[in-house]
Specification:
313 residues; mainly alpha; 53% helix
């Protein structure tokens, strides 16, 4: 639903629909009865039918007084819902009895009473703030200056019907008394907890967005020994330590290179000794296959080749 648009609400089943979409709704109300109007005396009826001399309905005023007397220090007064079985029983009793104002609410659980109050305002045929002025109230809430916002709100309140204004004043007074005991009903704690989780989520989102947009800086060029002046070298202890470590590494590498040369010379070949020629059978496993027309060299050929190598040496 758009917050500034009017909606249509079914009197029987309380189905809500946007004014531009109601013509396409295929839902058939199971409680609709065109022959008989709704017989509810309190819930879902027109506010003008409950008002007497533009005063707050007696039953609504009695429910609000019971909550203010008994339950201003109850935790979760309007956040928690009452037992559904008890709620339906009291609601049916209110709608069927001739004088619902005579019902004794002292033994009824407080959360059932608050559920009755919420159901009354939720099921009104027309909201307290009429649709023609709803958009004006929304625009006034965006005014930053306090005095100007209060002045505009008072002007809008005077434009409401007298009955709506009377009931809205009583409701605001009741909610102000409830909010005055926020330390007992833990409303502030719940709000702060929700805001804390919301801030953590927003900070994580901002951090992820920054990480995706962040670019790595280019690598700084390494300064050579020619670029460093003598003053910079003398004044920088870190450069001295690096030079010292470099010299030690050079000495260590030089010693290791000498040792490696000695080890190579120890196992070097002596070319003064004549070579020994030997025939290796199956020198490797993956030797190539013999080609067609090739035959194995004879023993005489191998002896002759060996004698020639010895004579040449």
């Amino acid at each position: 639903m758009w917050h500034a648009e009017r909606i249509f609400v079914c009197f029987a089943c309380r189905l809500s629909c946007h004014k531009k979409c109601h013509s396409r709704v295929n839902y058939v109300c199971p409680k609709a009865n065109n022959d008989q109007p709704t017989c509810s005396k309190f819930f879902g009826t027109d506010l003008a039918n409950l008002l007497a001399d533009d005063e707050v309905p007696a039953l609504l005023n009695k429910l609000l007084n019971c909550v203010e007397v008994k339950a201003l220090f109850v935790e979760g007064i309007y956040r928690k819902s009452g037992q559904m079985a008890v709620f339906k029983g009291i609601r049916k009793k209110i709608e069927t009895i001739k004088e619902p104002e005579a019902i004794n609410f002292d033994d009824i659980p407080i959360h059932v009473l608050t559920s009755l109050i919420k159901a009354f305002f939720r099921e009104l045929s027309e909201p307290l703030i009429i649709p023609d002025l709803y958009e004006n109230f929304v625009n006034i809430s965006e005014i930053k200056e306090t005095n100007e916002r209060v002045r505009c709100l008072r002007a809008m309140m005077d434009m409401l019907p007298k009955g709506n204004k009377c009931v809205l004043d009583r409701l605001m007074y009741h909610l102000a008394r409830v909010a005055h005991q926020e330390s007992a009903i833990c409303v502030q704690t719940l709000i702060e907890d929700k805001l804390h989780h919301l801030q953590e989520t927003l900070s994580q989102i901002v951090e992820l967005e920054g990480a995706t947009e962040k670019e790595l800086p280019p690598l700084a060029p390494v300064a050579s020994s020619e670029d460093l002046s003598s003053d910079d070298v003398d004044n920088s202890g870190g450069v001295k330590n690096e030079v010292k470590n470099t010299k030690e590494l050079q000495k260590q590498n030089k010693q290791e290179s000498l040792r490696s040369q000695n080890s190579i010379e120890e196992y070097a070949l002596d070319l003064s000794v004549p070579p020994v020629v030997a025939l290796l059978h199956h020198a490797c496993k993956s030797r190539p296959n013999k080609g067609k027309g090739m035959r194995r060299p004879s023993i005489n050929f191998i002896r002759k080749l060996r004698n020639e190598v010895v004579n040449n040496a």
